[in-house]
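Need residues for this backbone.
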């Protein structure tokens, strides 16, 4: 009798073991094989809302989401299809790898791709990281032609290597505010004039304004510099006004950002320029012409992108 009971208990134990084994095998066969975050999430396994997101499989593996660089870019302003005018505020977050020396290039284009304005944002924090870093800047741009009312704000990955595989950009579609009605704008340009010097004034660095009327434009700073490069009129020359800037010098880029005007000229600006007095006069004419605008507190002059070895006395 005792043996019969013992045999029965052993049989029940074996039966339970077989049931558990087959159940585990069946469950294992039903668990889908996953090797990527997407497969893990699709299988319904828990996803942690980290950056990047992570999914944990039943066997304990953690699969991180592969986030393309463009998907990680966040632009807070302007919003898609927002109505914008110059200067436009551009802000958001990009991976730190998009910065170089803490600078992030920005660009405004019309719908055909024509560049209307260029600027730079500065990282608001540590940029040598793969995590998201905040940026913000204001970019001035020229009014688009009457044929287009839409364009793009372009956030670009800084690419000092110049290699195409390192290029990336994020575009935000925008609408441009209607152009100002046709009319004239009064600007000031600054020239030297020894006849107007007061006692003790420096003949080199002291400049005086003359007024110019130009067609209304949103790019008033560039218009003022273009007028400056044309030099004094015949009437102004007769009144004693002179310019120290070389004829034929051209502006290659003008960006105003957070009170600073960055203006880049071609090499003609310093061609055969010598003497500390003339260098001081050139800088004063450009600086004062730009500082007439409330948005400009300081001016950085460059030639072909260089600021250190230019306009030497």
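Answer:
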């Amino acid at each position: 009798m005792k043996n019969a009971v013992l045999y029965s208990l052993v049989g029940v134990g074996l039966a339970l073991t077989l049931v558990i084994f087959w159940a585990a095998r069946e469950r294992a066969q039903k668990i889908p094989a996953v090797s990527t975050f997407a497969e893990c999430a699709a299988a319904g396994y828990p996803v942690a809302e980290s950056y990047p997101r992570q999914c944990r499989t039943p066997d304990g593996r953690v699969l991180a989401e592969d986030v393309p660089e463009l998907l990680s870019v966040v632009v807070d302003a302007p919003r898609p299809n927002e109505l914008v005018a110059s200067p436009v505020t551009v802000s958001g977050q990009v991976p730190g790898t998009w910065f170089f020396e803490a600078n992030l290039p920005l660009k405004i284009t019309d719908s055909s791709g024509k560049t209307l304005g260029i600027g730079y944002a500065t990282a608001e924090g540590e940029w040598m990281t793969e995590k998201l870093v905040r940026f913000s800047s204001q970019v001035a741009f020229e009014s688009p032609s009457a044929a287009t009312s839409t364009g793009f704000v372009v956030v670009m990955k800084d690419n000092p290597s110049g290699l195409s595989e390192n290029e990336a950009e994020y575009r935000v579609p925008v609408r441009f505010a209607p152009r100002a009605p046709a009319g004239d704008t009064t600007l000031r340009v600054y020239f030297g004039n020894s006849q107007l010097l007061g006692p003790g004034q420096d003949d080199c660095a002291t400049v005086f304004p003359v007024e110019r009327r130009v067609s209304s434009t949103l790019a008033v700073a560039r218009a003022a510099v273009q007028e400056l490069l044309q030099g004094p009129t015949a009437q102004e020359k007769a009144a004693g006004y002179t310019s120290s800037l070389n004829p034929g010098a051209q502006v290659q880029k003008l960006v105003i950002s957070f009170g600073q005007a960055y203006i880049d000229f071609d090499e003609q600006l310093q061609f055969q320029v010598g003497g500390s007095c003339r260098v001081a006069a050139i800088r004063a004419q450009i600086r004062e012409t730009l500082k007439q605008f409330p948005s400009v507190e300081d001016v950085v002059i460059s030639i072909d992108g260089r600021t250190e070895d230019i306009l030497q006395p």
